[in-house]
């Protein structure tokens, strides 16, 4: 069974569209994260939720909105997609905030 | 702000040789460090971690060394295998900085048969 899963794995869309990426973890962890990995492989944290509460919100455009319906899920909704949003987005989870993070397989977003 | 410094160089290693991947960090308040391995098309995978009260930790074929004096972290892989080909990231965490994990830029390891 996959510990941290994301859907979809690939997402190709036009500029200006709105899209969502879903993430689920079955590890029973309290904390979940979203990262963006650019073409140079640099990983940057975007958001972190602990027990469904937002605890990290990096300098991310407010077109990006995370939603955590429960501890096992953290979805990422992106409005008005731009070319610069093209990247691989990773979801991760950890037992508690600051602990070892387990990553999902990533979602490659391509904005045309 | 301070961050872990590791641009994306490439390390070519002969199969069977030992690999050493280096990482410099600048936040002296960092107290927890993790090495991740990312294979092509996959998410980062935890390899080994070390806390700042230690200077060495060993796992299966991997050893992490921490030198707090010069703010340097290294990952040693013994008897490198083709399956070790990947991008390796070091990451630092600091409770004082809000427990946010900061990743370095990664090193690509290519294992030659």
How does the helix and strand content of chain B classify structurally? mainly beta
Separation of termini of chain A?
Answer: 34 Å
Computed over alpha carbons, the radius of gyration of chain B is 14 Å
Order of helices and strands of chain B: EEEEEEEEEEE
Query: Mean pLDDT across all residues of chain A, rounded?
Result: 93
The largest interface is: A-B, 20 and 24 residues
The CATH class name of chain B reads Mainly Beta
What is the number of independent domains of chain A?
Answer: 1
The 3D shape of chain A can be described as: globular
Order of helices and strands of chain A: EEEEEEEEEEE
Helicity range of chain B: under 10%
CATH level 3 topology of chain A: Immunoglobulin-like
Concise synopsis of the structure shown:
The complex is a heterodimer of chains A (112) and B (113). Chain A is mostly beta strands and 112 residues long.
What does the model show?
The complex is a heterodimer of chains A (112) and B (113). Chain A is mainly beta and 112 residues long. Chain A has one domain (4-111): Immunoglobulins (Immunoglobulin-like), CATH 2.60.40.10. In chain A, 0% of the residues lie in helices and 56% in strands. In chain A, strands 2, 4, 5, 6, 9, 10 and 11 form a seven-stranded mixed sheet that branches. A four-stranded antiparallel sheet of chain A has the order 1-3-8-7, with no helix packed on it. In chain A, strand 9 and strand 10 (102-103) form a beta hairpin. Chain B has a single domain (4-112), classed as Immunoglobulin-like, CATH 2.60.40. Chain B is 0% helix and 52% strand. In chain B, strands 2, 4, 5, 9, 10 and 11 form a six-stranded mixed sheet that branches. A five-stranded antiparallel sheet of chain B has the order 1-3-8-7-6, with no helix packed on it. The radius of gyration of chain B is 14 Å and the shape is globular. The chains are: A mainly beta (112), B mainly beta (113). Chain A binds chain B through residues 4, 40-45, 48, 56, 90, 92, 97-98, 100-106, and chain B through 8, 32, 34, 36, 38, 41-46, 49, 87, 89, 93, 95, 98-103, 105-106.
